[in-house]
Amino acid sequence: PEVLEFESWWTEMSNGKIMPASGLTSQSRVRSSFTTMGAAGGSRTSTGAPSSGTAATNPTSAAIAKTAAIKIGRMGPSGANIVSLGTTRRFMSITYHPQSNQFHILTDDGKVPLVIAVRDRYDEPLQPWHLHIGAVIDVLGRPTTLMSASGTTLHWLNSNAKRLWQMKMTLEKRVNQFRGRPREDLDAGVFKPLWESNPALGGKVPLYKVANTIASLDIELQAFRQ
């Protein structure tokens, strides 16, 4: 593809108090937060240094705080509740250029995209088949979930998922003729819809996992034929 276009969003808190759900007296803390929402509604939060605040002594206040935290979907570490004192939904567009292996990052308040290189845990540049809805990439040290994609990107992801899946199924059928006990790989999770006749994929299939399975099946088939 010429480009792959994704979007991510998070809830940015201007101020927040963390208090125990039990409402017992403890020291409150104020943290600055950058949160990347996960694909299944979870969240990852990077926080700054805590500062001292006032103690939470009223169980009723703690209950109200818990309700408020649940309403905005924000939970703190160790079961603590984050009480919103002002939140803003922020957006980030993430455009990947395969030819240069560069990502163009533009936040909703930005005018000029930031051009960066994103690498995997083996310090290798990310490739197109590493990207999909739900993938978490490192953007300047912050885990960032790819939440949505453009129509063109979704078409590329889904069509290649189906193409690779057919290759996988063909190879697997051949390999199973030699195996003592036939098996089928990648039969759960985001791969489960691929077993259907008209799958709704939503760009969620990790192409690299299907490609790695194809490579393993090919090696296994060559070994059987020797």
Query: How is the quaternary structure best described?
Result: single chain
Largest sheet: 5 strands, antiparallel
The first-to-last residue Cα distance is 37 Å
Q: Count the helices. How many? A: 3
Order of helices and strands: EEEEEEHEEEEEEEHH
- Roughly what percent helix? 25-40%
Number of β-strand runs: 13
What structural category do the secondary elements indicate? alpha+beta
In the predicted model, the low-confidence regions spanning at least 5 consecutive residues are 16-84
Report strand order across the widest sheet.
10-9-8-1-13
**Hey, roughly how much beta strand do the residues contain?**
25-35%
Rg, nearest Å: 23 Å
Shape: elongated
| Mean of residue pLDDT values | 74
Could you describe the 3D structure shown?
By secondary structure, the protein is an alpha+beta fold. The chain is 26% helix and 30% strand. It has helices at residues 59-71, 151-176, 207-225, and strands at 4-13, 16-19, 27-30, 33-37, 43-47, 51-55, 81-84, 87-97, 102-107, 114-116, 136-139, 142-145, 148-149. The strands form four sheets. Strands 10-9-8-1-13 form a five-stranded antiparallel beta sheet. The chain has a four-stranded antiparallel beta sheet with strand order 6-3-2-7. Strands 4-5 form a two-stranded antiparallel ribbon.
